[in-house]
Amino acid sequence: xxxxxxxxxxxxxxxxxxxxxxxxxxxxxxxxxxxxxxxxxxxxxxxxxxxxxxxxxxxxxxxxxxxxxxxxxxxxxxxxxxxxxxxxxxxxxxxxxxxxxxxxxxxxxxxxxxxxxxxxxxxxxxxxxxxxxxxxxxxxxxxxxxxxxxxxxxxxxxxxxxxxxxxxxxxxxxxxxxxxxxxxxxxxxxxxxxxxxxxxxxxxxxxxxxxxxxxxxxxxxxxxxxxxxxxxxxxxxxxxx
Length: 241
Hints:
This protein is mostly helical. The protein has two domains: 106 residues, Up-down Bundle (Four Helix Bundle (Hemerythrin (Met), subunit A)), CATH 1.20.120.660; 105 residues, Cytochrome c/b562 (Four Helix Bundle (Hemerythrin (Met), subunit A), Up-down Bundle). It is built from eleven helices and no strands. It is globular. The protein starts with 5 loop residues before the first helix and ends with a helix.
């Protein structure tokens, strides 16, 4: 039996719950700088997933520039809460290495490989924040993304197996929980942004459509709904993730 939803959901709940309990929010210079540098990173991820080499080269160049600026400013002496993190400088260097490798792959027009390489930077940044009890909206986006990728990778196959419809329904419940967090945990500035509201509503609808198909025990409709999960999330992530 493939129980592909249980570990990621538990991990997401424990991570977000622990951080929320700590009351840590993005309000320090390093986290703010990381969030600024995250914008170009998101563009690089999006472009490498869109078969656009020239745009990917421009995006990775901007991402590297933003991260280099952050590393230069804070690499040797970060302020609180990162000032006691012995691995802080190493984490910054790891992200830089990811960007360098991705840039080489983009230059060789290996965009799929570059996209997978860039995914590593997201995990490094998230772990860096986690170690220092900092939570930002991107962490909720990442938790949803992890569960969505599992659904995309395993859901269609499971639907064709005995008991698969029930397993996918359980996983869709996890995805639905994380989708609701994208609205409930949104910064106030996002909640007042019409574009954000439209994009997050579309993401939530894609999950609801999947649930409706699963509740109707319509495997064919559920498979089609799974195929429609990624696009609304990608648009939300690119602008607000």
